[in-house]
Amino acid sequence: MPERVPAPPRDLFALAPLVFATLAFIVLFAQPARLLVADWWSDPDAGHGLLLAPLAVWLGWRAGVGEPHPNRLIGVVLLLSAVLVRYLSGLAAELFTMRGSMLVAAAGLVIYFLGVRQLVRWWLPATLLALSIPIPDVLTGTLALPLQLKASQWGAAVLATRHVPVELSGNIIRLPGRELFVTEACSGLRSLTALLALGVLVGGLWLRHPASRALLIALAIPVAMLVNAFRVFLTGFLVYTVDPAFGEGFMHLSEGWLLFVIAFVILGGFTWVVSQVEGRWMRQAPGA
Fold first, then answer.
1. Selection from 96, 79, 90, 107 nearest residue 135 by Cα
2. Are 17 and 72 in contact (CB under 8 A)?
3. Which end of the chain lies in a sparser environment, N or C, as judged by fewer CB atoms within 10 Å?
4. How far, CA to CA in Å, does 189 sit from each of 20, 69, 145, 185?
């Protein structure tokens, strides 16, 4: 009689839906994922994704997987919604919603197989992944112009306090024999996006209370605006008093990097102070 072939382990059958869903996710979202990585590599405004995405994966791995509590209904609803948005955004060639649907589908898979609690457990890497998606050009243009004008106004005002002859016209700062253009690249939107991501990361790692984290993220906005206005002032002051070369090229770029580091140090100092306050409050709390 022919030998009896042993039945496959039941664990393999249990893994089949997960394997199938993963393969379907890869096939469906391969194009938006590839275009997203290409933007990270080539677009300076999206370059922070090269850091945030691997960091999010590492943080998710470090957080681990908790006790599974699958929620099939919510998972299926999210997956179907993501597939529909992926299809419609693909027809319209709209990259932002296409990339957003990829994150919604990933959240749907997590909830379907592991539950809502697991998604909450992975809130920090999920937020970093969301922040790694570049802002659409329409929104960038809408946000950049007010930031340009505000940085120009504040920078010109500080220049006037230093007795520098200055005339402001929109985003153009006129100095004797020289004009400075506060362009979209100098609006501070890029540094604001990076500081918000850093605020989420630092708050998630070192702060314990959601209110403290929200306060840190909110602080990133005025810090980014003030530091960028100071950059405009510093550029104008150095152009007027030292050398016009400070308004362009390597020197101008170096000023931006230096002031971004200063902004990050400010956020780090605030985080340290709040963490100390949280530690004292927890030690003094009843039952601590």
1. 96
2. no
3. N
4. 40, 40, 10, 8
Percent of the chain with pLDDT over 70: 88
Return d(Cα 59, Cα 79) in angstroms, integer. 24
* Contacts with 254 (C-beta within 8 Å, 6 or more apart), sequence order: none
Q: Are 197 and 175 in contact (CB under 8 A)?
A: no
Query: pLDDT by residue (tens digit) across 189-240?
Result: 777 888 888 889 888 888 888 888 899 889 888 888 888 888 888 888 888 8
- Check residue 184 and give its pLDDT: 64
Distance of CA 9 to the CA centre of its chain: 43
pLDDT digits (tens, 9 = 90+) for 229-276: 888 888 888 888 877 776 676 566 677 778 888 888 888 898 898 888
Q: What's the maximum distance between 2 C-alpha atoms anywhere in the chain?
A: 103
Q: Identify the residue whose tokens are 């002859």.
A: 165
pLDDT in the model for residue 13 = 59
| Under 8 Å between Cβ of 90 and 29 | no
DSSP β-bridge partners for residue 181 = 172
**CA angle, corner 88, sides to 83 and 94, nearest 5?**
110
Model pLDDT, residue 239: 82
The tokens describing 233, both together, are 């002032």
3-state secondary structure 199-258: HHHHHHHHCCCHHHHHHHHHHHHHHHHHHHHHHHHHHHHHHHHCCHHHHCHHHHHHHHHH
Q: Is 55 exposed, middle or buried (0-12, 13-18, 19+ CB in 10 A)?
A: middle
- Which amino acid is it at 39? D
